[in-house]
């Protein structure tokens, strides 16, 4: 490979109107943090073991899982040796060391240990959390069943208290009650946090979490009374062993129920939690993280597509002129620049969401549950919105790289295959949006009654008769007002339909169901408040429906969006460079910093396993016999 940087990319970088390094410092919160991140990434780059892995797509599933376990355990050991204690250092190391591989221990660190910490009594946490943190106990979060994922109240696994033995008996009474999907259940873990219907004194008290040992701590054999296995290949997540698990009257001690909020006493008495939804805390936390995952996935795809578009030349823009960089086509800019802006918006939204989560979750820990519904609504809506928009955007990035985007060598298919799972896991997106919609609906009616609303949704009470004051400058205030107006109008419309349904005599659940399509649209509009001119132009109908904008204003917006493409054009490469994703993190022949994409693609294709031999065994096994048979055939059409 040549060491030179592609001349087009060099030019792009030299003509940027701002210093990309300053923006990188803003993203990572200061020059010292950027320096530290790069140092850590360099440690990974110098590490011979970590660099010895071929791209994951060159391994079969068994190989991918095996490599994932091997690599992740090596990462854990190295983190210990290096003495990295800060969460940021550890995350930077992990991301650099395994940039496109999901960890078979992800749910252990991401859900299992935090849930033990937050949902266990102080005594339970003291006992289990150190075991989890030191990986003496490896666990996961096992909730979903063959028959139910969304509807947690419909889960069928039972945990029946037996006061005689002071145990819970876990059982899978039906086929549909078999746990199905939980990550890392199949081969990796020896413990699970199992969500099951609690029965005591003959009464069901709803779903609760239980710590269940599923494999022997000595030899990893499956505990008697359990059936466990892998669910098979999926769209992505190849390094993750999503599993099934069936309980056959399997006993665990009473104290293995997580009892921070709800309790079962020795005599079988049940003590209710302050709020039954506290058991769902782990899901809320992961939904918040997913917003950051959506940012990472979309921004990586955007870096790849923008850099490649600056290097790729195709067709003549000026008749008879040189072939143009595809980034100079207005249509290409319209595809990619809004995604670049969206990436930045997602980053800020994810950071804002994390701060809100930290504040409200610490209130909850202290027993103040007042803001729980607001946190839930925000996390559900943003998780769904950012994963939907992120996935659509990644697909646009892939297609904007033409044919090469379709190759794994572009790096984009893997980004997509992993993040698209997030539209489903941790709450299917439509269902999540409808949770936010319920919150908006209730808040709208509260606003109508003159009650005060939390700051984020105070816009629901604005006067809908006011028209836009947007002028040539497309001021920030006029844009925010437009989004608020559109969302408020759409929420009001959906609520009015819900009300009209009720007034027709429908029971409230039907009145709700028969207004959920407009509610989803309204909730998307609510989440869309992150956007500016592009979002209006793309959804013009919704902004115009009640004549909020006049014809002149629409023309202003259409002109503005095209002018913005021109403003961004000289800065597009610098704006993606600022994310500061090194090549080994992107794992993309198209998104390389040096832009040497053709050399990289050509080199990469040589490592395809099909190139191990010039003549493939299938020639001897099938093609040659077929040709020999045909050449002996009397059929003249087979003779050349
Ligand atoms: C490669 C390239 C890399 C490059 C790119 C790099 C980027 C990386 C990209 C890749 C990523 C890497 C990551 C790897 C690891 C991932 C592992 C995956 C983990 C997945 C784990 C899971 O997948 S684990 C299972 C999750 N499974 C759910 O998520 C079920 C949803 N289902 C519900 O969540 C409930 O079922 C549902 C609907 C709320 C109703 O709940 P329900 O029926 O009990 O309640 P009701 O309907 O009766 O509601 C009664 C009232 O409670 C309110 N309420 C409900 N919940 C509440 C709450 N939490 N807080 C407050 N309030 C709440 C509700 O809003 C009502 O309020 P109101 O009355 O005011 O209307
Ligand atoms: C990659 C991946 C990893 C996963 N990891 C885990 C894990 O570690 N642990 C775990 O416990 N689970 C895990 N899951 C399972 C996941 O959490 C569930 O699949 C998810 O919650 C969706 O539930 P479901 O499959 O029941 O979908 P369903 O609810 O059956 O969805 C099917 C359709 O019905 C619609 N629908 C359902 N209910 C409603 C409603 N009330 N209103 C309107 N529409 C509705 C949905 O919108 C969807 O279109 C994982 C799933 C995936 C894909």
Structure overview:
Residues 280-440 form the Acyl-CoA oxidase C-alpha1 domain. Residues 20-138 form the Acyl-coenzyme A oxidase N-terminal domain. Residues 476-529, 530-628 form the Acyl-CoA oxidase C-terminal domain. Its main location: other. By secondary structure, the chain is of the alpha+beta class. It has helices at residues 7-15, 20-28, 31-46, 48-51, 61-82, 87-97, 106-119, 122-133, 281-311, 330-365, 372-399, 402-406, 412-419, 429-448, 476-503, 508-513, 516-527, 533-538, 540-544, 551-568, 572-577, 583-586, 597-606, 617-632, and strands at residues 139-142, 158-162, 167-171, 179-180, 191-200, 203-213, 226-230, 243-247, 250-253, 263-264, 270-271, 313-316, 323-325. The strands form four sheets. Strands 1, 2, 3, 5, 6 and 9 form a six-stranded mixed β-sheet that branches. It has a three-stranded antiparallel β-sheet with strand order 4-8-7, with no helix packed on it. The protein is globular.
